[in-house]
Amino acid sequence: MGPLQFQLSGSPGDGPRSLTSALHERLRADILATRLLPGQKLHIAGLAKQFSVSLAAVREALSRLVADGLVQASDQRGFRVSPVSLADLADVTQTRIDIEGLALRRSIERGDDAWLASVKSAWADLKAVPYRYPDDPTVHYEEWVVRHRIFHRALVNACGSSWLLGFRDVLHEQSERYRRLAIRREVGKPRDVEAEHKAIVAAVVKRDADAAVRALSRHFGVTKEFVELAAPRIAEVSSST
Predict the structure, then answer these.
(1) Rounded to whole angstroms, what are the CA distances from 77 to 39, 59, 81, 191?
(2) β-bridge mates for residue 74, sequence order
(3) Which residues constitute the domain of residue 189?
(4) Does a structural domain hold residue 34?
(5) Which CATH number is 35's domain given?
(6) pLDDT of the chain along its 241 residues, tens only?
(7) Whether 107 and 207 share a structural domain
């Protein structure tokens, strides 16, 4: 995979902290979107030259990505995009079911009418855009990805715990990377993602926490199954970086 061809937005007067944050966000987005692939080397000097930032800014941005679990650091090998594996996928999926299921259950118990309205609104916004590009079904429609993240966050926003939400957000990002890898190399039967989301929302509207958590768990489980189907193709791409 060749070097990324883009510049960081910002003015010449931006300080080192804002440039570091911009670089962190851009690299994070490219890892989640699989433009930077699992195992790919991240060269500090090359990134500094590419983005016209200092070596220190690159190191800080990469260190933040290490804390996010999206990059790995080694004294001998430098920085690399974190690898993927079926064992890690299983761990991420089950932990996300545990954490996000708890957050959803608490939100249903504690959420008011405004929270429920926000869930319905996020669901309506998500349905309004296509899941994939019509002319290339192996690529996500980017606005769908944004609205999908907002929808899943809306479901748990009323849980009342910043710790739960923080852990949930980290797990969502890890799951997102696997999901994006899978859709680019999807095999097998088509997936009805809208029906999966509809089942979750229907249970939430009824304030049936048990049914909502079951629907959410099935939704995450289907994602895991599709990633497992695409695993040989993912491994092939990852090994080539």
Answers:
(1) 11, 14, 12, 39
(2) 78
(3) 86-239
(4) yes
(5) 1.10.10.10
(6) 333 334 454 444 445 568 888 999 999 988 988 888 889 999 999 999 988 888 999 999 999 999 888 999 987 778 999 998 899 999 999 999 999 999 999 999 999 999 999 999 999 999 999 887 677 666 667 889 899 999 999 999 999 999 999 999 999 989 988 888 777 555 456 778 999 999 999 999 999 999 999 999 999 999 898 888 877 766 555 555 5
(7) yes
